[in-house]
Design goal:
The strands form four sheets. Strands 1, 2, 3, 4, 5 and 6 form a six-stranded mixed β-sheet that branches. A three-stranded antiparallel β-sheet has the order 12-9-14. The protein is globular, with a radius of gyration of 28 Å. α2 runs antiparallel to α6, α4 crosses α5 and α15 crosses α17. The N terminus is likely disordered. The protein is of the alpha+beta class and 680 residues long. Helices cover 53% and strands 11% of the residues.
């Protein structure tokens, strides 16, 4: 099945020449296909229910949005409007502030940032296509771009509202610019552009110093056709521009915040050093520490490949093996080994590809060495790693295509059919396929979203609340929340916590007049322990999900709670009737009671809801409890049944939802219900 009647020159490694595209007419449509995919991606994401939009977004991401709005209100990099914070990566925060200047409402800023992230995602895929095309041929570029753009896991990763998407885009553009500098004698303008991209990479994340340094070394020392003086001059130009772009911010941060490194990273390193030295009994960054990290490293790499490309991980492994065989076999079948069929040297492409691979391996090992406790959920660190997988997939595909040229058309057909089968789900779409049990699993971020929306409608505007895991709740509440999370706070606050965590916390509560505290508490022997507060110094006012932990920890029973310090740091404003569901005063058996406000709403009937969460107990020998959508029974709970049930009712919109006891008195039933109205 031929793609074209023309002869296509091949290089000895099996990659097609970048100047001899096998489908010149079809390739002209690629930009339009990319634009069309971007439009579909934006429309699809914005049309999803709010809960589905928020579920895959890290809590930290909303910290950026909160600071952006506060910056326009106060002129400070501040989460709460009181104190300055440096718990963010700088360039992405500045971009978010710029977007907030135009979209200055909370719903508007969220949607605008989702659109921007989708644009960055598709733009990165396009740059991968161009990079692979120029370095290893059109097939490599097409596969690399498709692996990135059409992969649901990578799409979700880029739509997480964090800086990883921007970092990926800048890195690929810098790789392209480096390749161009090695293929032909670079002009002064090209060297200036490369310095700009490298500086912006480091401006985006401080740990981009490693890949940026590798590219700087490559463009400085790999140009064998010129003398050392010229090479050093090129490197000096690139370095000067990169420093001019990135250094001003880090200098400003040092004098303004007391730390050039974001305090989120500083606190993680502090925690990890304590874990290594006192928990593992190893010397920090010593030989024993390095050997321990080396032993754990392969498992982390396998986890990363599965996390970003788990859908095709077996295919990746098989394809990489076959592609390696094809690449090794090609020089044996052709005499040329240094230049391609069109006379261009293969070394620049090989060096750039090797540099990307070294950056991926080096970055992943550095993360395994210094941040292992955070790697299970901080997948936004894995920028070089995810890019390397896409590029290597493209190289393997190009080598296989050259090895099996007669079968390539059939391979394209099989891959296309498989892609359609996955990327066009029959009912809910690719994001919902990843989140098909969104409303029936442990609540996690959905609980935070619901608490935030509740606080928005209930908490007094004058109230000041403290919060851990500060992003989602504070952003959707839109009220005055003070972050107690050291990752998101100032260096001075971190230093105080290191010396005296209890005293530092209480000093902040008193200084800010904090009336309530939101966050996750550990449940031990039926009682709730809130971080950095003495056990008998607070009341747990509300546990929205008393029988269902958040799912944040697989070891500890962690529940989201609202607590009130007994010392009265701020005037109280909440009443027992303000809580829609859950348990009030759970640490005091004399005052503990189940809140049934939403059950009463359901008995009367509610017009619409995204989800219903029921905690019920139907007495043995009693009448069954029925949930109706209109006149249709959606669920039945029989006599003797008890427990927690979550029901996705998005498909019942337009029908009135009602709880009914056919032959009994609702007042005699111990039940609790939460109607999750996630409209914003």
């Amino acid at each position: 099945m031929a793609l074209s009647g023309q002869q296509v020159p091949l290089d000895p490694a099996g990659a097609m020449s970048a100047d001899a595209l096998p489908w010149p007419r079809w390739r002209r449509w690629l930009p339009w296909l990319a634009i069309g995919w971007l439009a579909l991606e934006i429309g699809y994401v914005l049309a999803l229910p709010l809960a589905v939009q928020v579920r895959p977004v890290p809590d930290d991401s909303f910290f950026y949005l909160q600071i952006a709005l506060r910056w326009h209100e106060t002129g400070l990099f501040s989460f709460d409007g009181f104190d300055e914070s440096y718990g963010f990566q700088p360039l992405w925060q500045l971009v978010t502030i710029g977007v907030a200047a135009v979209f200055d409402t909370r719903p508007g800023l969220l949607s605008a940032m989702q659109v921007l992230c989708a644009l960055v995602h598709v733009a990165t895929g396009w740059q991968l296509l161009r990079l692979g095309e120029r370095a290893f041929g059109p097939i490599a570029g097409l596969v690399a771009g498709a692996f990135w753009t059409l992969n649901p896991a990578v799409m979700i990763w880029c739509l997480g509202l964090k800086e990883n998407g921007l970092y990926a885009l800048l890195f690929v553009v810098a790789l392209r610019e480096t390749l161009a500098c090695l293929q032909v004698a670079p002009s002064r303008a090209r060297l200036l552009r490369l310095g700009l991209w490298l500086g912006l990479m480091v401006f985006t994340r401080v740990n981009a110093l490693m890949p940026a340094g590798l590219l700087l070394a490559l463009v400085t020392f790999a140009a064998r056709q010129v003398g050392y003086r010229e090479r050093l001059m090129r490197g000096a130009i690139v370095l000067a521009v990169a420093v001019a772009v990135a250094a001003p911010w880090y200098g400003f941060a040092w004098f303004r915040f007391g730390s050039a490194m974001p305090t989120s990273g500083a606190w993680k390193l502090f925690q990890m050093r304590a874990h290594v030295e006192h928990g593992l009994q190893l010397s920090w960054l010593g030989l024993d520490h390095g050997l321990h990290a080396l032993k754990e490293w392969p498992g982390y790499l396998w986890f990363l490949v599965g996390h970003g490309y788990g859908l095709v991980r077996p295919v990746l492994v098989a394809g990489a093996g076959l592609g390696l065989l094809a690449a090794l076999a090609a020089p044996l079948r052709r005499a040329q080994s240094v230049v391609t069929a069109d006379g261009k040297s293969r070394w620049p492409a090989r060096l750039v590809g090797l540099t990307l691979l070294i950056a991926a391996l080096g970055s992943s090992f550095a993360n395994q060495l210094v941040l292992p406790k955070f790697l299970g959920y901080c997948d936004w660190y894995a920028v070089p790693e995810f890019l390397a997988v896409a590029v290597l997939a493209g190289v393997a595909a190009a080598a296989l295509a050259a090895w099996l040229r007669s079968l390539f058309g059939w391979l394209v057909l099989v891959v296309a059919v498989a892609a359609v089968g996955w990327f066009v789900p029959p009912k809910l779409g690719l994001l919902a396929r990843h989140e098909h049990d969104l409303f029936t699993r442990p609540p996690r971020h959905i609980q935070l979203l619901e608490v935030g929306l509740w606080a928005r409608n209930t908490l007094a505007d004058s109230a000041v609340a403290g919060i851990w895991d500060p992003g989602i709740v504070a952003y959707f509440a839109g009220k005055r929340f003070v972050s107690l999370d050291p990752l998101m706070n100032s260096l001075a606050y971190q230093q105080g916590l290191q010396k005296d965590p209890i005293g530092t916390t209480y000093a902040l509560l008193k200084d800010r007049g904090i009336a309530y505290m939101f966050g996750v508490a550990e449940k031990v022997d039926g009682l709730y322990r809130y971080a950095n507060l003495l056990p008998d110094s607070f009341d747990v006012l509300w546990v929205p999900y008393p029988d269902t932990p958040t799912g944040f920890s697989e070891v500890q029973a962690m529940h989201y709670v609202v607590v009130q310090p007994r010392d009265g740091f701020g005037p109280p404003s909440l009443r027992p009737s303000d809580f829609p569901c859950g348990v009030i005063y759970p640490n005091d058996s004399a005052r503990r009671r189940v809140i049934t406000t939403d059950r009463d709403r359901l008995v009367a009937g509610v017009p619409a809801a995204d989800a219903l969460r029921l905690w019920f107990e139907v007495p043995a020998g009693g009448s069954p409890l029925e949930l109706l959508a209109g006149d249709r029974i959606v669920a039945t709970f029989g006599p003797g049944e008890a427990g927690f049930r979550a029901i996705d009712t998005r498909g019942e919109r337009g029908a009135r939802l009602t709880l009914r006891w056919p032959d009994g008195d609702p007042a005699t039933i111990v039940s609790q219900a939460h109607v999750a109205d996630l409209e914003w």
